Amino acid sequence: MDSIKNNGLHSQTEHTTIHEELLATKISIIANAFVNTNNLSKNDFFSRVFETAFILIPEAQKGSFYELEGEIFRPIFCKGYDFGLLSQLAFSKDEAFIDFESSPNQMIDAYQVNIKKRDDALFSENQIDIFKQLGTYSDFASLYAPIKFDELKIGLLCIENFDEKMFSETSRLVLKIFAQLISNFYSLKVHQERENKRYKEIINALVSAIEVKDVYTEGHAKRVSDISLKLAKAMNIPANRLKIIETAAILHDIGKIGTPTEILNKKSNLTKDEYEIVKRHPLDAKKILGKIEGFEEIVNLTYMHHEHYDGSGYPEGLSGDEIPIEAQIIQAADAFDAMTSKRAYRDAMSIETVMNIFREERGKQFNPAVTDTMLRLFTE
Asked: Looking at the structure, do residues 91 and 133 belong to the same domain, yes or no?
């Protein structure tokens, strides 16, 4: 008798060990798949979620994710379903959880429900018709997990099986992990959006400080940034460099905060001494921006935006490839906007005149490739 009990206990222990090892293996796979998701788009993130989930949850046949938009849950991703058909489904906050166990205090977890038949009284005729076309009207099992953020349900992750199979406990725990990953993803995106907003507010505040001093350069920083991005994209500069270019371009004149207002707004030509004072602004920019953590590349680009391709620029007299291509793009954009804008000492130049100057200065003040791109963009 004791032998039978011991054998039973041994079998149970062995089963538990196998279950734990299987779960550990699957957690390891998930960890490797989601080690770097900070820069993934929402679509790419959910694509990875479902691809990995369908590998690790053997009962999974179809799945979908609903996101809360205002007061309505709408599908934003699916696997196995016709998304065009699925996207016609939309549920209120209450409707989304009609068939599922749910409570206001529900923690992030995964739950299983077997649906023999939808209750027609709880849904519209159109919803019932779509359920039937999707195969989710009757006789299926759903493993689901509400997604929460700041104590609010913001999404619903569902995995379905249509072969009357029960989802295993391992599968339930795996889906719970995915639910937590999704919750973390949304938390990260919200944090990034807040940080980006704060970042832009700081940048705009710095730019405004310059424009208050120099009435003729109002909007100049934004225009230089826009032109720089236009040039960079046309030159196929890698996408991960565009944000750096945009920020450096909008801050390129930040050093002019230290330039006397009477020099910035002088209506006649600058004297040699006054010009030497103006030429200090890249160094002043370096001092200001150099104190901001993570701005190292931006500092370099703002510092070099007056360097010329032939070495005749300032502050270092760099030439050719010594000047980062991003700085050469900003330099050309800055010159273009300066020439096509009204200044205290002259009227705005025509595009035709400015393009002729770029042709003349190709390989001198301006990088040949940047010049050719500028001509293509503004003469065609």
From this structure: yes
Tell me, what amino acid is at 198?
R
Q: Average pLDDT of the chain?
A: 85
Domain holding 314: CATH number? 1.10.3210.10
Residue 220 lies in a domain: yes
Give the chain's domain count.
Answer: 2
Task: State which residues form the domain around 246.
Answer: 214-379
What CATH number corresponds to the domain at position 118? 3.30.450.40
The answer to whether residue 238 sits within a structural domain is: yes
Question: Are residue 182 and residue 56 in the same domain, yes or no?
Answer: yes
What's the pLDDT tens digit per position in 116-175? Answer: 999 898 888 999 999 999 999 999 999 998 888 777 788 899 999 999 788 998 899 889
Q: How distant, in Å, are the alpha carbons of 107, 143, 158, 269 from that of 179?
A: 11, 11, 10, 65
> Would you say residue 297 lies in a domain?
yes
6-20, 52-66, 119-133: segment of lowest average pLDDT: 6-20
Q: How confident is the model at residue 9 (pLDDT cuts 50, 70, 90)?
A: very low
The string of DSSP codes covering 180-242 is HHHHHHHHHHHHHHHHHHHHHHHHHHHHHHHHHH-GGGTTHHHHHHHHHHHHHHHTT--HHHH
User: What is the mean pLDDT of the segment spanning 283-297?
Assistant: 87
Calculate ∠ Cα 334-335-340, nearest 5°.
Answer: 100
Hey, what amino acid is at 183? Answer: S
Residue-wise over 252-284: b if at least 16 C-beta within 10 A, else e?
bbbbbbebeeebbebeeeeeeebeeebebbbeb
Tokens of 99: 């068939």
Do 231 and 177 belong together in one domain? no
- Residue 295 near residue 289 (C-beta atoms within 8 A): yes
This prediction's pTM: 0.57
**Measured distance CA(211)–CA(331) in Å, rounded:** 19
